[in-house]
Amino acid sequence: MWAFACGAVSSGQSLADHWALVLSGVVLAGPMVCACSQAVNDWFDRHVDAINEPQRPIPSGRIPGRWGLYIAIVWTLLSMLWAWQLGTWAFRATLLALALAWAYSAPPFRFKQDGWIGNAACALSYEGLAWITGAAVMLGGAMPDAHILTLALLYSLAAHGIMTLNDFKAIEGDRQMGVWSLPVQLGVKGAAGTACWVMLLPQFVVVALLLSWGLLPYAVAVLLLIYAQTPLMMRFMRDPVGRALHLSAFGVPLLVAGMMVSAFAWRNAPQHILVSQTYAIPFSIAQSSQEHAHAKLDL
Q1: Which terminus, N or C, of the chain has the lesser number of Cβ atoms within 10 Å?
Q2: What pTM value is reported for the model?
Q3: pLDDT in tens, 227-252
Q4: For residue 270, what pLDDT band results from cuts at 50, 70 and 90?
Q5: Given this model, what pLDDT does residue 276 score?
Q6: Cα 187–Cα 188–Cα 194 angle in degrees, nearest 5
Q7: Under a CB-based contact definition with an 8 Å cutoff, are residues 58 and 73 in contact?
């Protein structure tokens, strides 16, 4: 949800004029696609959860039989239907996000078996793809400019570290079930250090880029947010298992706040108007084209 909103903001288009589109996109990214990915993961991780978190709905029996799988399938179909009304770009991006969600959890791919690959798939889907889609939808289906793509990909990389934080609560079950999360592969201390650096380095690159684009106040704001994260990370490094949830609760919001700061930075950049004129298709024309395409398909 947040990443889609960042994409909408960074597009430079009027949010007030297209508020319904932004709202539909946020619902798609959050309660639809993200919830679907969680449902898929809950079903295919039920054996691991029985060890790590037996109180969860499926291991505890509160969702009996194969209902967990049925919920995942139904929510996948509903997400596709919701995406269809947002246009071709949103629909295709949703198909890719849903494919990654199933491939992350379900055999034969089950990307989460390897912490590097699985966390990359999640990070790309939750942050980069959602950000780029938010911008593209606001631009009427046009490809966002290189500045937007760069910010989205940098924060996708940072999100890889965020995904690792979630693995510290499942170390024992992952080890028993052969899931090679980063805490299992690198050890608790090694994974903690990796997660922190993967979160920090892309943010420093964002600061450097904002400075190079002449956006000093925004660069300072992101730098201050990084500074606020560092003591939380230092405490996390001393007790990774005990402090992972604390860093997720208080450090990650600072990181994602930097996402929105960066989105507003590019939105308000003097050169953005020129870039938008070069790359963006006027929204009304693109919307008419999409409606015409839908009408032809209906015929």
Answers
A1: C
A2: 0.87
A3: 999 999 999 999 999 999 999 999 99
A4: confident
A5: 54
A6: 85
A7: no
pLDDT tens sequence across 82-141:
999 888 989 999 999 999 999 999 999 999 999 999 999 999 999 999 999 999 999 988
Please answer whether residues 196 and 155 qualify as being in contact, where contact means their C-beta atoms are separated by less than 8 angstroms. Answer: no
Instruction: State the Cα–Cα distance between residues 276 and 288, nearest whole angstrom.
Output: 19
- Alpha carbon distance 62, 5 (integer Å): 34
Say how far apart CA 203 and CA 248 lie, in whole Å.
16
Using DSSP, state whether 114 is helix, strand or coil: strand
Q: Can you tell me the distance from the alpha carbon of 235 to that of 244, in angstroms, rounded to the nearest whole number?
A: 10
How many beta carbons lie within 10 A of that of residue 47, not counting itself? 12
- For residue 22, the one-letter residue type is V
Q: Supply the DSSP string of 15-77, one letter for each residue.
A: TTTTHHHHHHHHHIIIIIIIHHHHHHHHHHTHHHHHHH-TTSHHHHTSS-TTHHHHHHHHHHH
281 has pLDDT over 70: no
Closest CA to 207 of 139, 255, 240, 145: 255
Task: Give the CA count within 13 Å in the CB-facing half-sphere of 172.
Answer: 8
What is the C-alpha separation between 28 and 35, in angstroms, rounded? 10
* Furthest-apart CA atoms within the chain: distance in Å: 63
